[in-house]
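Re: the 89-residue chain
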Amino acid sequence: MSNNPTWLQRLKQHYSAPLAQSFKQFKLGAMLFFFGGMLIYASAAAMTASALQEVVLLAGLFIGGFGFLIAMMAQVRMMISRLVKFFSD
C-alpha cells in the first residue's frame, strides 16, 4: 500500500488543525464581507446612476459573497473541530 493518507485521515488532519488557523480564515472572510458591503453602500450613496456604479456594485456583491462563503466555511470548520476534539478525548 502507498504512503498516501486516506481521505478519512486527511479529514481528521483538516479538522484537528489549531483553532487559530481557522480563526484567521474566519477573519479574512469577515473582512472581505464587510469590504464588499462598504463597496455596495458607497456605490449607492456616493455615485450617480451609471454603468460604473453598476460595476462597483457587482464587484461589491462578488467580494461580499466570497467573504461570506469563506467565513461560513471557517465557522463550520471550527464547530466540527471542537466536536472532533470533544469526542476524541
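The radius of gyration is 19 Å.
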